[in-house]
C-alpha cells in the first residue's frame, strides 16, 4: 500500500514544534557525493577485458595492469570504513577526494584503451591476432602504445601513494553488507507504484480550510489564506487536497497552481499563472507590461482560486507588486499560500494563518506501521517489534516526511536487535543536533545499499518539482557506470529499474505514475532534493540564469545547464551535460560545439534535444567516451554524420521527432554497444541502413522503414535484418510492408515470434503506387501468417493490409493482448473473435469496408457467457464499416419496428465498457452497453442498440458489478448524428438518464426545432455541438442550462443570422466555432459580450461580413488567444477590433479571396506567435508582420506576382520560422522539389516549398 503523505520542502528545526523556527542551511554540508564501489567495479571489469589484456601484452604494460588491479582491489577493502569516517574526519575526507580524482582518471584512461582495442577489433573483422599484426605495422600505433604505457605507470604510482595513506589513516578492511534473503524477498514483492490518495491525520485541517474558502465572507474581493509550517509537515499536500476537492471545483471554475519556491521573480510567477490558466507558456520575450495585461485579462471579474506554493520571499515591495496584479478577481476569489515563515504569512495576509502541526501520536504510529510493516505483517504480533517501532515513531516528532523515510529504511532491516541498535545509536545521536530533519533523512541515505547512493545523488541534476522520466534516468545511471551487471543474462535496464524500485520502496521518490507518452514518471520531494544536492557536493551542479553563480566548479563532473551559458564554462572533468530549462536556443553556435567537443572529452551523457539544430558536426566523434546522445526534437535536422559510427561506446541514440531526418548513418553496425535507437516520429526516414541487423544488443528500435522499390539499393536493410534482433522491447513499428519483395521469405526471416520482450507491434502497409497514380493491390502473397508475433505481445496494430480475407490462426494465441487496432482498407469479411481475450481493454476497427460481422456465433444471454464476454474491454471504436449490419453472423435483421422484438434482438451486454464510438456502421444488432460512462459517439448508424440499452430494466446488473444502476446515468459525453429512427421522444428519453452529462453533440436532426425542453436537466453541461439541424431556432433558446458552457460549436444551422444576445450570459465560454452557416451575416450583438473567449473559429460562412457597426474598442478581450477565419468570400477587410486583441497568439487566415486590407497596425499584436495565411490573393506589400516569430504563407503562382518585395523583406526579418509555399495544379501524385532554406537575423528556419 502506498500513500500520498503530507510533506513539503523544509530546512527548519523540528526538535519541538514552536511557532517560529530558524532556517538551517545545508549548502555547506560535509556530505560527500562519492561511492567508489561502482567506479572500482567498472575499472576491474575493464582491466579483466580480454581486449585490454591482449593489448597490454603487445604494448608491454600487462604487468602494470595487473599491479593496478591489485592496488584498486586493496583500496576497495577499506572504502566502507573511509566513507563512514569521512563525515567527521577531515583527513579521511581529503583522502577520499584524492582517491576519487585518481579513480576517475584511471577509468578514463582504461576507457581510452578499451575503446581503441574495440575499434581495432572492428576494423580487423573481429580477428584480433591479425589486427595486432596490423596494429604494430604502424609507427603511430607504437607511439600511441608507449604513450598509454606511460600514463598507466603514472596512474599506478598515484594510486599506490593513496594506498599507502590508508595505513596512516588506520583504515580497516570491511565488507559492504550483503543483501539478505529478507531484503531480496521484500524487493521482489510486486506493487503498482501508483500511490493511493490516502492522507492520515489531516481531516480537521481540511475542514477548517474548506470553511475559510467556501463560507467565510471577506470584505476583500480576493482573500488570502496562508498555511504555515516547517518542512516535511505536509503544507503542499494539504493544499493539493483542498485544490482537488469537489466542492472547491464547483465553487471555483478557474483554479490555478504555481510552485514559487526559492526565487521570487514576479515576471516568472505571472508567466506561470498564465500558463496554469491557458496550459500554454507565454512568449519568453514578452515584457512585463504585456504579461500583466494578459494576466488581468485572464482573472479580472472571474472568481478564482490560486495556490502559491512554497513562498520564501520576505521583501514587501516584491509581494505588493504581485498582489496588485491579482486583486481584480471577482468577489469570493481566494489565494492560498504555503510557507515555512510566519513573517511571510504576516506579510501576505491580514488574517491569521492556518498553522500546521505535527501528527498525533496515534496518527504517527498508524503511518509508521503501514510502511515499516507493509510486507511483514506477522511482526505486528511481536510485542518487541511493536514496542521499538512505537518508540522510533515518537522520536520522529509527528513529521510525516521523517516518519515515512525512517519507516521505509526500517522496512529493509530484518531483526529486532537491528531495530533496537538503530534507535539507540544512530537515531539517538540525531536528537542532539540542530539540523534534525536533514540529518534524520541523511540516516536513510547512509543506510542505502552502496549501489544506490550514486543513483540518488545523480538526481540533483533535475530542477525541483521536475517530472523525472524513469526510463531516461535509468539510462543515465547505466551510462555513468552506476549499474553493475552481476550476470550477463540480466539486461542492465532491468537491473537499473530494480535500483529505481529500491529507491521508491525507501520513499526517495514520490508521485510515481504512468504517463501515456513518456512511460513511468516520478518526482522527488524538495527536501529529498536538498539532500541530494548536499551529498552531491561540488560534483553535481545545475546552472541557469537564476543561479547564484554562472561559473562552473572545476571539480564538477555532472552538469545541468541553460545552453545559453555554455560558452562561459570550463568542463574538462564533465561526465554529464544535460539541457536545463525549456528555453529555446537559436541554433547552437560554433563556439558551443567547440566547447562541448574540445573541453568535455570525458562526457558519458549529452543532451542536445530541442535546440533547433540544423546539423551535427563530424568532429563529434571525438567524444569517444559518450554512452548517451539525445538529438530529439530538432525538426530541421536532415542527417546525422557518418562519423558518429566511430563512437563505439554509444549505448543510447535518440533522434525522436526529427521530422526532416531522411536517413540514419551508414555503417551503423559499428555501434556495437548500441542498445537503444529511438526514432519515433521521424516520418521522413526513407529506409533503415544496411547492417542494422548486426546490432544484436538493441532493445529499442522504435521504427523499421522498408525501402520503397529498392530505391536505395544495398545501402538499405531488408526486413530479414530484424531476424537477429531478439532483445527488442517496447514498441516496434514496421512501415512500408507493401513494398517487401519475396514477402513470404522475408516475413519469416524477420522472426517476430522470437521477440518475446516486445510489448507493442505496429504493422503498416503502403501499396506500391503505379504510373497511373493508383495503388497496386499486390498484398495477396504477403500473408499475415508469416508475421506471427510472440504470445507475450500486449498491443497489436494492423494498418492497410489488402491481402486475403482470412485472419491467421495465431490471433487466438495472443491471450495477453490489451490493445488491438485494425485499420483498412482491407478485404476482411469477418475477423476472429476477440470476445474471450481476458485482458483486452481497447479495440478499434476502422475502414474495413467489406466487414460483415464480428462474431461467427449468434447472441446468447446466459450468465456464464456474459462473464466471459469481453471481460476487460473498456473502449470500443467501430468506424467506416458500411457492410456491418450485425455483430453476429447468425443474427437475423428484423425490420419489424415492434419494441418487444427490439429488446430481444440481443440480451448480451458488455460488462465494463466505458467508451463507445460507432461511425458509419449500420449496426442494428449488437451487444448492449449500459455501463458506458465516459464517452458515447453514434454517427450514421442505427438507433436500435441505443433504444434497447436505454430501455433495459430501469435497474440492471452486470457481471462486473452487483450494484444496481440506471444505464448512462454516469455518462459524461454523448454525441449523436444522423441516427436512423431517432426522434424527439427517444432523444428525450436518453437525456433523462444522462444526469452527469458534461459534453453533448447533436446533428442531422431535421425534425429538431428547439433545444429548450431537452436542456432542462443538463445544468452541468460544459460543451455543446449543434450540426445540420436545419429547422433549429437558436435565437429562442433558453440560456440558463448553458451557464457553465465553456465550448460551443455551431455547424450548418441555416436559421442563424446573427449571434444571439443571450450569449452574453455565458461568461465562462472559452471556445466558439461556427461552420457552414450561410445565413450568418453578423457576429453581433452576441459576440461583443464574450470577454472570456479564448478561441474563435469561423469557417465557410458565405454571407458574413465584418463591419464597424456597433463595435467598441475591445480592450477587455485579453483572453482571446486563437482566431481562425476561413472561406469567408465577403470578407474584404479584417475587423478593426482585431488590433485590440493584444494577447492573441495564433492568427489563421485561409481562403479569403476578397481580403484586401488589414487593420492599420498589426504591430500592436505583440503576443502574436504564429501567422498562417493560405491563398490570400491580394496580400498588400505594406503589410507589417515582420515582428511575428512564425509565419507561413501558402499561395499559388499568380499570388506571388508583384509581391517579391514583401517576401524579400519577410525573409530578412527577425522572424524565427518562415515557410513560403507555392502551389500549382495538384496532380494525383504530388512531388516535392528541393526545399530552399533562408535565415533571417534570428531565423531558426525559413523555407520555400514548391509543388508541381
TrEMBL record:
Residues 974-1102 form the Disease resistance protein At4g27190-like leucine-rich repeats domain. Residues 596-888 form the Disease resistance R13L4/SHOC-2-like LRR domain. Residues 205-376 form the NB-ARC domain. It holds the Pfam family LRR_14. Residues 43-126 form the Disease resistance N-terminal domain. InterPro entries: At4g27190-like_LRR, LRR_dom_sf, LRR_R13L4/SHOC2-like, NB-ARC, P-loop_NTPase, Rx_N, WH-like_DNA-bd_sf, WHD_DRP. GO terms for molecular function: ADP binding; ATP binding. One of its GO terms (biological process) is response to other organism. It comes from the Eukaryota. Residues 461-532 form the Disease resistance protein winged helix domain. Keywords: ATP-binding, Nucleotide-binding, Plant defense, Repeat. This is Disease resistance protein RGA3. It comes from Hibiscus syriacus (Rose of Sharon).
